[in-house]
Amino acid sequence: MAYQVPLFIGGNMVQSRTHEWLEVNNPATQEIIARLPCATPEEVAAAVAAASRAFAEWREVPVPERARLMLRYQALLKEHHDDIARLLSEDTGKTFEDARGDVWRGIEVVEQAANIASLSMGETQENVARGVDCYSLTQPLGVCVGITPFNFPAMIPLWMFPLAIACGNTFVLKPSEQDPLASMRLAELFKQAGAPDGLLQVVHGGKEVVDQLLVHPEVCAISFVGSVAAGQHIYQTGTAYLKRVQAFAGAKNHMVVLPDANKQQVINNLVGSSVGAAGQRCMAISVAVLVGEARAWIPELQDAMARVRPGAWDDPDAGYGPLISQAARERVLRLIAGGKAEGADCLLDGSECTVDGYPRGNWVGPTLFSGVTPEMGLYREEIFGPVLLLMEADSLDQAISLVNANPYGNGTSIFTASGAAARKYQHEIRVGQVGINVPIPVPLPFFSFTGWRRSFYGDLHAYGKQAVRFYTETKTVTARWFEDEAVAGPNMSIHLK
């Protein structure tokens, strides 16, 4: 029998009593890696109850002790970095180097969580009135929930629970049902680092489990990364039940290319940012807007993309791995076929891609379209595959208007040698994360991940200072002490004038 994935409740790996199981498949072979339980309502309730009990004690733990737990945890994550990456590669199909990057970016957030004493400091002002001082405190919320996607099964959970717990909360994680194994390893190492029982729970399942967590009265805050439809549902439901919610959703990320940019840098970065990770990144560049004479570079871009090939996780020459599932592959193929039917020019077609030795893999080869217009379904929908769309503009102003007209606002970049053009772009563009000669502008964890518009539902973003604000509440104290009422105790000597 395939490995049965446990739940993690109250500090223990627990075998579920559910009658509903899902298969976890290797995307390159369709081999069944594991069977995943859909947690019962009683098991979900037990996870929240364990987190609630642990919160009563954890909130009183001094901030330096919380920071030391994160220091021990990041040391263990570094020690087991490659082991987690191998597990992640089998689970997701990612190439080993891509998986290593997934783990490392998560470790960087854990390192930032170890700085919680500085990040969570309040503010003080003396003498706001005669003899009156005012100061603010940051205090934890309670039980927090994280709902994470398949595409970064190490990084995105590590965006969430380390900072939430460092702030004094406890946490229930519901990882993607498509690749849960890395999350279970993260939980094991967290316990090994010395985390008290109940700080972190892991439950599995689909929409029913998510909905139970969204409405549970003990849950205070919900973090989500995933599709637009799911993000809207989670935000609307969570806020209707008076939860604090941050929901990161879809994207359509543009790279604007000016003709004064370095051509080879543009080509190299466009190829890597569009087909890397099989395009299954919410920050992938899926649209290139070629301004003016930059459109002459299309044949060289086509040649460079044609040289990239997908392959298995342990193939050192593979540019990327398979899509996560057969359903994901079918969706991408549908969008490619739709683009052709709508009149876009398919310069490279990866629909019939095969990989030797892996006939059942969810392969899609590098695909390139030109002549794309905003009305096409290929442009309106997030493809989430190794597909790059080329559009053209006569000026920077026209390119900015095109990007701003798109409903998403996750990430964008501009490649240019002009500082004035770059400044104009970063100022006028209505997108939350901007790269200047950087293709995928994901901020390091001392900043925050700041998607806008339909790419994000909520007020406070992931990691960095905004995440600390999301996982804490601010209490303001106004204090006045009357000197003429002071009483000297047996061990005090007070001299008042």
TrEMBL record:
The keyword Ligase does not apply. PROSITE patterns: ALDEHYDE_DEHYDR_CYS. GO terms for biological process: L-valine catabolic process; thymine catabolic process. Its EC number is 1.2.1.27. The keyword ATP-binding does not apply. Residues 15-477 form the Aldehyde dehydrogenase domain. SUPFAM superfamilies: ALDH-like. It is an enzyme of class 1 (oxidoreductase). It holds the Pfam family Aldedh. InterPro entries: Ald_DH/histidinol_DH, Ald_DH_C, Ald_DH_CS_CYS, Ald_DH_N, Aldehyde_DH_dom, MeMal-semiAld_DH. Keywords: NAD, Oxidoreductase. One of its GO terms (molecular function) is methylmalonate-semialdehyde dehydrogenase (acylating, NAD) activity. Belongs to the aldehyde dehydrogenase family. This is methylmalonate-semialdehyde dehydrogenase (CoA acylating). The gene is mmsA.
